[in-house]
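Lest this sound abstract, we let one protein speak, letters for residues, whole numbers for local backbone shapes, and leave readers to judge:
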Amino acid sequence: MQTQLVAVFVGGLLYVPLGSAAENKSAATPDRISVFKAPLVCPAAPQIGCGSASKPILLDLERRPGVLEAWLNRAGTRIAVVWKPDADAATRSKVAADLKEDRVIELDGKPREEAVTDFLSGKGWYHGAEVDRLSGEEAAIIAARLVRRVQAKTPLAQDKAERLERTLTDAFRKNFIGENHDEGMSVRQLAGDFLDERQIAALKEAIEAGVRPLPNEK
């Protein structure tokens, strides 16, 4: 993800509440739930899961025979699959084998029991396309980080800082969820109407440093 975004910005182009399993998921007994360990932590926002990386996986799962629902936990470390009542062992095994190819490994024993309990608690799980909420959070985290980098290089009035953060958050969010339609927009076009030349230069420098946290950044 970082490589893609940095390439986008360097080339001059610029392209949220918790989910609730308790509110949305279909009633399911523990025997109809499988939980998998997933490497879907967001590199640019390590405190949450990556919406853009997990969304195609969850949506693909929900198109699979035997799968009723697929969920991601907030941390991006677990995927829960709710099976249809008629899903047999062969169907489950096929899905688990396919996920394993993407380093998504099924849990068993106590880790599984703990994960199922957490899932059924209804707190901090995102169903299918709901992971767009995580993408929104990621966008906000990155935007705030870039604004802090700009502020470290040049004075930036509070109203300008807030506007820049909102503008960047919106641009990143649209990019992550596939709603960006401004592929020809440069950094100057994005913020040039309220940033001066020095601030624009600082923003470009901040972007070129990458979207992931640098040492001592959050």
About this structure: Residues 1-24 have pLDDT under 50 and may be disordered. DSSP finds nine helices and seven strands in the chain.
